[in-house]
Every structure is written in structure tokens, then in C-alpha cells.
Amino acid sequence: MNRVTVAEMMTYDMTFVFENETVESVIELLDMSSISGVPVVDSDLKVIGFISEDDIIRACLPSYFNLLQSAAFLPDTNLFISNLKKISKDPIGKYATKPAITVKPTDTLLHVADLIMRKGFKVLPVVDDNGVLLGVLTRLSVIKTAMKRDLVVNGQ
Amino acid sequence: MKVLAVCLNPALDREFVINGFTLNKLNIVPNELNRMTPGGKGVNVAVILSKYNVPTILTGFVGGYVGNVLVSELRKVGPLLTTSFVHIRDETRENIAIEDTLNHTLTEINSEGPFISREAYELFLKRFEVLVQKVKAVVISGSVPRGVPFSSYGELTSIAKKYGKTVFWEARDEIITESIKIAFPDVIKYDMRRSEKILGSYLEHEEEYVSAAKEFIKRGAKLVILSYRTIFDFVATAEGVWKFSPKFEIEHSFLLGAGDTFVSAMILSHLEGKCCLDIARYGYAAAVAKTKYLGKEPPKREDIDKTLELIMVERVE
């Protein structure tokens, strides 16, 4: 099964944003296209980051949030709402994960499954040898591809 | 990637075959007679190119529920077709056709299509400039949605030309007339399905087609194809003007998809190193090969090669 490659599992879609586009416009894009995150590219289509719903939520929470055991310790949701409004016109590049963790079309299922499990990624940008965006790999497509494959026992 | 296909106004084509279709009554469609396919001229060209093993990026605008269905249908085409759309709030066009083979009727219901805001159009232009650098040729084909100027083909072509790309257009007169004020493509194929109007005038006689074709070459196009009485074409290059005709009778009811096949085959031939009249000949042969059967599927390469012998290329100037 580890011979299954990203090329067989990826989604051949290049929806992307530039780092100077606003947080507000990215939220709008995620909503309209029903995706949870999108690659951030430069003018050469090279992936320089990745912005997900998680990144945006994290940007709206106070820096000490990670130290708390529960959101119940936060004074109220107004803090989250006012922070979201404050950052809505900011460039998305400020909150994107940089550099993005990317995979190549030749990477194996085992390699991406490891990344998904250890780092908790839902979507991974797929790039060529020069870092240029080719598409994305979703967690669900990895699971669906694995489901369709026959078991390989002793290389047979 | 080899080709960037632009479809500014894609559609989801729904086809229902209902024999004995009746108004004011519940009409049930069996699942096998209910089809859903991606549509729009640029989409069709991208799909055909990917079937000819040409890696293609398809761009334009998609929106709403219909847009998401369209994108998921395009996913089924295969790994040679990559989508890169700008997402909008308005719904993508939906074209519904109800075919009744008992009563010989065709009822069509087409949605008006989306409105594209200036902001969405500017986002698209920025993305186009990045994508165009990654391909060898660009094809812009089909109608423009509300909000997008008729001159958009010219705007996109001037960006593509900045990076030395070969540009193909297939469009109707209003778009071509406004767009050539900004930039000229390498290849123009007129979409004359709705009107035989070229540069604002209605053409009738062969001589008028010949002079219109020459006019485009004079203004900067390398290759011009003007369809004449549906099955013929006037083709002009800097070397002259030719009339293309089939050597056998064309079945008019099988013409669906022939125009998109023509454009796709020209691009294919261009990518294989052919030039000018040769790419037009190949495109015409592909279109004629497509008229031998019903359906949207493009003809096989060997059928196009055989059809090259079944077309007549006559120099008229």
C-alpha cells in the first residue's frame, strides 16, 4: 500500500490566495468554495504558506489561550469577535502558516498519512520540484484512496 | 501544464430525455436518461484537450451550489485537467434541455447566469497573470457573464502577450470587435451560431467573407477562421485565403461540439509544432470527424488523420 502516491490521491485544483489579500476575503473564499484552507502563493505560483480556518481562529484568540485548559476561562466571546473584526482587513500573509508543509506528487501514502497523523493537517498543498502549486491533498481523499486499494501481502 | 483555457461563463448542462413530455403534469425521468455535464465553450475545449493528453488548466468564474456541482463534475475528467476558478456568490449558469423523441420537441430552460463584480474580475486578472506564465498557449472561448466587459478577451490577451504566449479565441462579434481594440490574438475563430455578423456587418456573399478574413490578417491576426453556412470555413493567413469544404455530406444533427473540437485540435496541432494553414486543416478535419456521430466525445486521433483526406482545401485568394 505504501506504493500509492500523492499523484493518485490529490485533487487537481489550484485555488489559491496571495499574501496581500485580506483576512475577510479569504474567509469569504473558504465559505464559498467549501474548503477548510487554501495555499498562499507568490507571483511565481510558488507556495509560500497555507491559511486554514484554524489559523484564523488562533489569530483571534489571546496569546495565553494555549495555556488554558478550556475556553471557559476566557472572559467572553466578545473578545474573539472584536479581534476577528480588528484583523479582517489585515493581509492574510500575517496569519498564514509559513513555510507551508507541502508534499510532492511522488510522495507515498505512508509519508502523507504520517504527516496527517502527527501534525493534524486536513489539507496539504501539492507542489513540483520548484515549489510551484499543482493541487491539494485532502485527508478524505487519502482515506478514500486507501479504501479502494487491495491489500498487498509480501509484495504480492 | 501546456494550455490555459479560459471560460468566463461556464455552465452546468442538464439533459432530460422525457418521451411524451407534457406540461402541467408530473414527468418522471429514468436515471439513465438524466445527464449532467460540464458546459461552456472554454470548459468543453479544456475537457477535449485533456482527452487528447494535453495537461490543461481551466479558469474562469464559478459560484453557488451549481458552481460547486460543476467543479465536482470536472474532477471526474481526470488528472490532466486542473481547475483554478475564482469563486463568486452568484449561481453559475444552468442549461436545462428536455428532449422528447416521441413528439420531436426540445424544450430549453437556461438560467441568466451570474453577475461578476469589478472586485471579482480584478482578482481573476491577477490570477490569470500568474497562471499564464506556466503554460505555452492560452485559449479564451465562449460568452462573457454580466459585469465582465466585452473587451476582456483583449485585456487577457495583452497580459498573455507580455509573456510571449500563443493565444486562441473563439467568440462572437461583439466580444471580438471590442477586444481587438486592446490586443490581437494569434488565432481567431468566429462563433457564428447566433448571427453571421462580422465587425458589426452582416455577411452574405463569399467575397464578403474573404475580405473580412483579409481585414483581420491586415490588423494583426496570424490565422482567421470564419464559418460559412455552418459546414464550410474561410481560412486566412498572411499567405492567402482558402475555402474548406467536406467531401461528403454532413449530418447536421451531429454538429454539436464540432466547433469546440475544431479549436482543441488546432491547439493540439500547434503544440505539435505545426503552423498556420496546417493547424486550421487539422482543426477542420477534427470538426468534420466529429460530425460522424452523436454526442460530445471528441474523435480519435486516427479518425482525424483519416478525415484529412476527406476535406477539400481550395485557394480562393
TrEMBL record, chain A:
Q: Which UniProt keywords apply?
A: CBS domain
- Please verify whether the record's keywords include Chloroplast: no
The signal peptide here is none
Alphabetized Pfam families for the sequence: CBS
Q: Where is the CBS domain?
A: 9-70, 96-152
In terms of PANTHER family, this protein maps to: CBS DOMAIN-CONTAINING PROTEIN (PTHR43080:SF2), CBS DOMAIN-CONTAINING PROTEIN CBSX3, MITOCHONDRIAL (PTHR43080)
The name this protein goes by in its record: CBS domain-containing protein
The species this protein belongs to is Fervidobacterium thailandense
Automatic annotation (TrEMBL), chain B:
Do you know which Pfam families this protein is assigned to? Answer: PfkB (PF00294)
Q: Is-annotated flag, keyword Nucleotide-binding?
A: yes
Q: Show the InterPro entries listed in the entry.
A: PfkB_dom, Ribokinase-like, Tagatose/fructose_Pkinase
Q: What GO molecular function terms would the record report?
A: ATP binding; phosphofructokinase activity
For this record, an example GO cellular component is:
cytosol
Q: Which SUPFAM superfamilies match?
A: Ribokinase-like
Carbohydrate kinase PfkB domain location: 35-295
List the keywords (alphabetical). Answer: ATP-binding, Kinase, Nucleotide-binding, Transferase
TM helices/strands, residue ranges: none
Q: Does the keyword Protein transport apply?
A: no
Which family, according to UniProt? Belongs to the carbohydrate kinase PfkB family.
The protein depicted here goes by the name Ribokinase
